[in-house]
Design a protein that fits this description.
6% strand, 4 strands, two-stranded parallel sheet, mainly alpha, 143 residues, 5 helices
């Protein structure tokens, strides 16, 4: 599966949590891949909620969000998040703009938590660079 999410915003999120640590390109790629997988799964659940309500359009409430935030405050771009939402759901569904923003907000929080933990793991390993293995270790520990 190709990764829809560009690595630059994911790298920005990791660096925001890295402090003085460096960030490897493979760490950003690994986190982008994990974000994409998580987003696609959330969209499947949201599609089930929309279907239960008799809709074909995913709304922010289907992602458990009552009020979407301002899209300009997000680091993750909306267009790739829209493509992520559509990866594993049927083509009959539409994704409303507030749902795209809600999903981007959820995925950004998800990425922030993982990036912070990866920085902690890199420091614990006495390294100066966050690597893909730190992201993978996070999932081994918490999944």
């Amino acid at each position: 599966m190709s990764v829809e999410l560009p690595f630059a915003p994911v790298d920005t999120i990791i660096r925001r949590n890295a402090g003085s640590l460096r960030v490897s390109a493979d760490a950003a790629e690994e986190l982008a891949r994990r974000i994409q997988g998580h987003g696609a799964m959330l969209a499947i659940d949201a599609a089930e909620h929309a279907t239960a309500d008799g809709r074909k359009t995913l709304m922010a409430q289907d992602f458990g969000v009552e009020q979407a935030i301002d899209k300009d405050s997000l680091t993750l771009p909306i267009a790739p998040v829209d493509r992520i939402a559509r990866l594993r759901i049927d083509n009959k569904y539409r994704v409303a703009m507030d749902a795209r923003i809600a999903l981007a907000d959820i995925l950004e929080d998800y990425a922030e938590n993982i990036a912070l933990a990866a920085a902690t793991l890199a420091r614990h390993a006495n390294r100066r660079t966050i690597k893909a293995e730190d992201i993978q270790t996070y999932f081994e520990l918490f999944e």
